[in-house]
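Hi both,

Apologies for the delay on this - the queue was longer than expected. I finally got the guanosine-5'-triphosphate-bound model through. Below you'll find the protein sequence and the ligand SMILES exactly as submitted, and right after that the structure tokens for the full complex including the ligand.
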Amino acid sequence: MKKERLAAAIFITVVFFAISITLVAQIISTRTHTLNDLNTNISNLSHTLDTYSEGIIRQSEMLIKNISDITEIYGMGADQKNNLKRILSEQDQLLIQLNNIVIYDARGDKVISLRDGNSVNSNGADRSFFIYHRNNPSRNVFIGPPVVSRTNGQWVLTVSRRLEDKEGVFNGVAVLTLNIANFLQTYGKLDTGKEGTIALTSGTGTLLIRYPFDAKFIGRELSDSPLFTVYLKKSSAGIATSVSRFDKIERIYSFQKNKRYGLVTTVAVSMDEAMASWRRQAEILAIVILFLMGCVVFSSFFIIKEVRRRIRISKEISEAKASLASENAELQVIATEDALTGLANRRKFDEALVAEVAKGASNKQPIALLLIDVDYFKKYNDNYGHIAGDGCLQAVAENLKKTISETPYLAARYGGEEFVVILPETDADSAKHIASKIGRNIKLENIPHQQSPLGVVSVSIGVAAGSAASLTGNEAMLIELADEALYEAKSSGRDRVVISQREIT
Ligand SMILES: Nc1nc2c(ncn2[C@@H]2O[C@H](COP(=O)(O)OP(=O)(O)OP(=O)(O)O)[C@@H](O)[C@H]2O)c(=O)[nH]1
């Protein structure tokens, strides 16, 4: 039973182990797949947005270069204002993100603009792009930090260029402003989840645009973030994770640095949100697997219980069988044994006589029979009592058993104080010899018998013998002849052996 329990425990452990490994492998594999898909998606998005931003800035660059070239060629005097205004108006429809185009003179005074608005302050000398160009001789366009437009109060990005006179002296700034709202509208159409963000940062780390929009984040310096201090130093594009300094949410983000303008586009999704479906899947998988494991344990418990029950029943059945077999054997003995003497009983004798006669007949052998009767037994009973009489019969039977113990002869109690012995393959002479030995041995037992002339218990024996073949089907004849011989032994004085002289035919 211990072995079965151990085997069941090993089986359950192996199943548990195999299922657990499969579960963990499956969960890790689906997590890797989810992350890979996510990485691909956000990388594609940041790449697309980078191309989108580059396109707008490139168009803006071309526009502002054209306008600044025209301004430098024709000047910005009063006679040119109308021409310049007309040229600016023609550019209006070229770029949907376009907010305004303004030309400032060397003092920062607005000379002309595409849209005038309601602004009182028409001087832009304090603007960062103006200061940059005044102090910097480069003729490249400058993408400045976001500012609030003085024309319409909108958040805008500035793309500007330095103006010079023929001697190369600073002569003002041509600036083009782009609506941040327009970028936000495009960003908003992309699905980055409830906590996702999209941002555009200058090459030096100034936050230009962030979706979802919050004015307090615009213009913030991110040059000290890991994106600028670590990742962008290694590669211009990639995937990273970080906890946002703005809202403390952990996000996975892809970044893409524009090769032409250095602008950095990032697309970030919340880790929690991105992995939610994987987590739900993993939880369901874990619950299903745990349920199945529970079923295995539960069913194993019942299987073990059932196996134990069956083993117990089969043990009980074999015990019952063994006990029945031993009872049967006892019954067999009881059915064939004489209770007082332990010799074969009359029934057994009858069966054995028929069987031995048949055997002797087939072997063409003789067979003999002894009929033994205790002498003066009534007197013994009368003198010593019935119980002592029983004891005397037991003693005679024991003596008889001992005498024929080494032989194939069968002794039985024929009834009362009479015994019978079957002697297979024995002729009359040999039978007489055995009978004499039996009589002698019983006398030598010296069982006191005051009422017998000998003073001890003796027996008379009648012997009959003949061809077994002649007795087949007439076995009783052998008994009859032995009985006659016994009668003669009794009547001729007892304590003797008499052989029947009648021929068996
Ligand atoms: N104690 C005891 N006595 C038995 C048993 N069976 C028979 N007897 C007695 O055996 C006696 C047989 O007596 P009888 O047939 O007259 O013969 P006997 O006294 O032996 O005389 P002979 O055979 O002529 O020598 C009877 O008294 C029976 O009651 C038994 O199992 N136990």
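Main takeaway for now: Residues 57-274 form a domain with the Beta-Lactamase fold (CATH 3.30.450.20).

I'll put the files on the shared drive as well.

H.
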